Amino acid sequence: MAISNPYTAPQAEVADVDNAHQGAFQEMRIWGWRGRLGRLRFLAYGAVAYLIYMVLTVVVTIPATMLRASGGPGLLAVLFSLMMIPYFVFSALVLIRRSHDMGWSGWMSLLAIIPLVGLIWIFKAGSPGANAYGAPPPPNGTGVKVAAFGIFGVVILVGTLAAIALPAYQQYVQRAQAAKALQGK
């Protein structure tokens, strides 16, 4: 009969805690502060939210301006304030989940208010694998890539064109005013 040593290590297979999350991804929820959000999805969600906010602003501005012209007191300011609330709440939720992806507490997202410090949330990579806030976010699909790169590409294109066109237009206006002054003499 073999005598077993009671002080030897157990021989049973034990699954590691991290193995439970390997190969698993988090479910993506639009409204929520729990979980993680990758860099590209962070940019895409922010860009789409801003685009929706701008479209709603234009859609609300036209009738509100007409009402204000007819004597509606301060309706435009009230509507803008009401539209900003969900936009800022959504932006804060996305920023908190992005902080979680980097392994930081959601309270660290308050640092994004400081100018240029907010760029950390765009350029710093998330934690590889699972962290204290859950499994990693799923891989980015085509819609996320189009939203992130497409919207920011359009913004960069429009900004570049404006940077070229505005000075040219100002020079045109100056030349037109000079020509008008010469004709008037």
TrEMBL record:
Source taxon at top rank? Bacteria
Mention any Pfam family matching this sequence: DUF805
Name the keywords, alphabetized. Answer: Membrane, Transmembrane, Transmembrane helix
Question: So where does this one cross the membrane?
Answer: 42-62, 74-95, 107-126, 146-169
Please name the InterPro entries in this protein's record: DUF805 (IPR008523), Pilin-like (IPR045584)
What PANTHER family does the entry give? BLR8105 PROTEIN, INNER MEMBRANE PROTEIN-RELATED-RELATED
Q: What is this protein called?
A: DUF805 domain-containing protein
- Species of origin: Ideonella azotifigens
